[in-house]
Each structure stands twice: as C-alpha cells, then as structure tokens.
Amino acid sequence: MSVERLDPLIHPPARLQLMALLADVSEMEFATAREILGVSDSVLSKHLAQLGDCGYVQLRKATINTRQRTWIAATAAGRSAFKSHVAALQALASGRSPHA
Amino acid sequence: MDEQEAGRSLDMMRAARGMLAARTRWSSARHAAVGLLLGGLIASYALPGSWPVVVVVVCLAVTVAIVARDRRRDGFFVNGYRTGRTRPITFALAAIAFAALVSAISLKQRYGLDWAPVAIGIVLAIVATIVSIVWERVYRQELEEPGRER
After folding, report:
1. What are the boundaries of each domain within chain B?
2. In degrees to the nearest 10, what's the CA dihedral of B87, A21, B78, A74?
3. Is A37 in contact with B16 (Cβ distance < 8 A)?
C-alpha cells in the first residue's frame, strides 16, 4: 500500500498540475509546461524555484538552434512525494482520512 | 482539506494530464521510423563483411536524430521504459527484437540462409510499427484515465 501524505509544497493548483505533467514524462520544456498550465514565465519560474529548493524538480539548460531552452524533470523524491500526495487526495475525496 | 477540495484538486490534475494526452500524437511516419530502425538493424546481418556494423552506427545516429526532433516538436520527451502500462509493451518489443536477432544470426550462420535476416527484418519492421502505435494509444489512455494514482 502506498503512503498517503499531503504535501503542502505540492498542494497549490499550479504546482500539483506541474507535478502531474512531470510524473508522466521524462522531461518537459519550460515553454510547453507554461502553455499547458496557462501561467506566465515568472509564475512558472517561481513555482519551479520552490519545487527545486526541495529537490522535487531539476532544471537543465540546452541550446537548440542557437536558442537556449530550459528542460524540467521531476526527481525521484518529487515523484514519490507527488504519488503520496495524490494517494492522500484520493483518500480524502473518497471520504476517509489519509494514512501513512 | 475537505472531501470537495480534494476532489477539485484531483480534477485539476486530470485536466492537466488530459492536455498532455491531447499533445501526445505521433505521426504514422514516426511510428514507421521505429519499425524501419529495428527492422533495418536485423536485416543488416544479411550484408557481408563489416557492413552490419556500419548499419548499426547509422541506426544509432538516426535514433539520436529522431529523439532530438521529438523534443523540438513536442516540447517533452517520454522514455519508452517509463513505469506504467506501457512498460510491458516496451519489454515485449525488446524481447521480440532479441528473438529476431538470434533467429537471423542463427539461420544465416548455421543454415546458410543469407536472405533470412532480410525476411525477419521486414516482419520485425511491421511488428515494431504496430507496437509503436499501440504504445502511444496505451500511453494516452493512461493519461486520460480517471483515478490513476501514479
């Protein structure tokens, strides 16, 4: 049985959606994540900085056709925290308390 | 957090995954490229001398180019070995490709059937193309699946 633990860092909607995207890909470009989430560069950067500080995501810079692009990936810790958070949400949504 | 708020959070998460699923559509040519690469690798064992090695190097270079193109076009990259319902499909294709390789080498070297690698390569190319299409569909279904935990 997986751990069910609400994570305050993942709780804000944009961060939850970002982690949901990153959990299903190996890497996602900054611009793609921004488009899907419908947020500005600065808002996404702020969320990424907070997730990055806790080791949930890592950023990689790559130059493609002379343009520098940022790629985002969820770390193992980030994926694990996200999975626990979603399990806790599902427990709450089904009317029971999350358990560890 | 109450029951309704948790439900809303899950809905938002599903909406984001749904948008990713909508972007996950690879062309028929992209699926055929997977088949041609795998089939080409096996068929190359019909070639004499060190030509199979040359083909392997070319196939690896083409694979790198395809991955780079995928990243540019899609804005994301999905590893074929990712955990989830697609993983058994990936392992099944790897097992089929390995069996095809062993068969091609065996039939050519033991039985002198020089055409065998080409025939097996053609079959593998078709199978790998179909498997690639199935992989994409299963991945998209997984993204769109409600109540998925991972």
Report:
1. 3-144
2. -90
3. yes
